[in-house]
Specification:
The chain is built from seven helices and twelve strands. The chain is an alpha+beta fold. The chain has a five-stranded antiparallel beta sheet, with helices on both faces. A five-stranded antiparallel beta sheet has the order 7-6-10-9-8. The termini are far apart. The model has no long low-confidence stretch (mean pLDDT about 85).
Length: about 260
């Protein structure tokens, strides 16, 4: 990473040029003593506007793009003015750094993060990440659909979901179209961007619980019917009989099961 420093006085005259600035400008030593507005190389890029901001007494931290030796480079300009007791600019120093490689790594990490979020959003399992105070840092589409949360707006985790890390809980929550949904919630401690956080996973088990309820109703009907019923498997071995079967045949459940 190439780093160079330039300094200007209150009249915008370039007084010092770090030798490392040669990476950015040809023969930078010839720029000393010139007014920055009269330097064509400054005028061709955003460096001039950044230096003018510093000269007006404003600190800067700005990225610019510049073609250097036929390659597009990302430069970071950081400047801080030196003010007198009346608040007027006396001098200003500007640090120029080539952060192209860092910028490329940042873009790659950003792309990886976005791909990860898109992948998480495809999951049917709800994902919620909170800070230690239970402010929501991230929630995927499934979680937002289940409990109407939003990612990144510092909502507080709904109280009914606030369970201890390492535990699991099933709960009945209001769903869409005035229908209730069964949600299984599990909590665990994680690191989110290296900070202590909590991960809450939400599984919609409504279809399972509704099927169990239907099976319970069906079982109650079969057990109460006056007709004898025996359920067999694919090799015609009895797996289950109802009370009417026992009454009719005299076979108890333990005697009938596994017989043909």
């Amino acid at each position: 990473m190439e780093t160079g420093i330039i300094e200007i006085n209150k009249d915008l005259i370039l007084e010092y040029v770090d030798p490392a600035v040669q990476y950015y400008f040809n023969t930078p030593e010839k720029l000393i003593g010139k007014k920055i507005t009269e330097i064509p190389e400054f005028g061709k890029c955003d460096i001039l506007s950044a230096i003018e901001k510093v000269a007006q007494g404003k600190p800067i931290l700005q990225r610019i793009r510049r073609n250097i030796e036929g390659k597009n480079r990302t430069l970071l300009l950081e400047g801080e003015p030196l003010l007198d007791t009346e608040g007027k600019v006396q001098r200003a120093a500007i640090i120029i750094q080539d952060i192209t490689k860092l910028d490329e790594k940042y873009n790659l990490l950003t792309q990886t993060k976005n791909n990860f979020i898109r992948f998480i959003d495809y999951l049917g399992t709800g994902i919620i990440v909170t800070d230690p105070d239970r402010h929501i840092l991230f929630s995927n589409n499934a979680a937002q659909h289940m409990v109407q949360t939003k990612s990144g707006d510092l909502q507080i985790l709904p109280e009914e979901l606030n369970i201890k890390p390492g535990t699991r809980k099933e709960m009945l929550l209001p769903g869409s179209h005035n229908k209730q949904q069964y949600i299984e919630v599990e909590a665990r401690e994680i690191k989110w961007y290296r900070e202590p956080s909590f991960l809450f996973t939400l599984r919609d088990i409504t279809p399972v619980r509704l099927a169990e309820q239907q099976n319970s109703i069906l079982l109650a009907a079969i057990q109460s019917t006056a007709n004898a019923i025996a359920i067999t498997n694919h090799v015609m071995t009895i797996d289950w009989v109802n009370p009417a079967f026992t009454k009719l045949t005299g076979w108890k459940m333990a005697e009938a099961v596994n017989s043909k």
